Amino acid sequence: MTIIDIAIIVGMHVVGLAMLLSLWRLLRGPTAPDRILALDTLYISAIAQLIMFGMLLDTEVYFEAALIIAMLGFVGTVVLSKYVVRRDIVE
């Protein structure tokens, strides 16, 4: 096990803690914008976890999964934000 592997494992633990804190804010958030930001942070943390896991296993499959999550997360955040602001999704 090299130093970079240890750094990746430590980074995965830190990002995992960030995911738990985001999940707590998602469940506990007092307002809808707080919950949307927590969900946005949660999917960004999931992308970071997948990229680090792909680096640890030295495979490209997890990078493609992270790209798909990024695209879907962006669209989801835009739709939820638009709904909170206008109470309507379709213009």
Automatic annotation (TrEMBL):
<dbReference type="InterPro" id="IPR007208">
    <property type="entry name" value="MrpF/PhaF-like"/>
</dbReference>
<keyword id="KW-0472">Membrane</keyword>
<protein>
    <submittedName>
        <fullName>K+/H+ antiporter subunit F</fullName>
    </submittedName>
</protein>
<comment type="similarity">
    <text>Belongs to the CPA3 antiporters (TC 2.A.63) subunit F family.</text>
</comment>
<feature type="transmembrane region" description="Helical">
    <location>
        <begin position="36"/>
        <end position="56"/>
    </location>
</feature>
<keyword id="KW-1003">Cell membrane</keyword>
<dbReference type="GO" id="GO:0005886">
    <property type="term" value="C:plasma membrane"/>
</dbReference>
<keyword id="KW-0812">Transmembrane</keyword>
<dbReference type="GO" id="GO:0015385">
    <property type="term" value="F:sodium:proton antiporter activity"/>
</dbReference>
<keyword id="KW-1133">Transmembrane helix</keyword>
<keyword id="KW-0050">Antiport</keyword>
<keyword id="KW-0813">Transport</keyword>
<feature type="transmembrane region" description="Helical">
    <location>
        <begin position="6"/>
        <end position="24"/>
    </location>
</feature>
<dbReference type="Pfam" id="PF04066">
    <property type="entry name" value="MrpF_PhaF"/>
</dbReference>
<feature type="transmembrane region" description="Helical">
    <location>
        <begin position="62"/>
        <end position="85"/>
    </location>
</feature>
<keyword id="KW-0406">Ion transport</keyword>
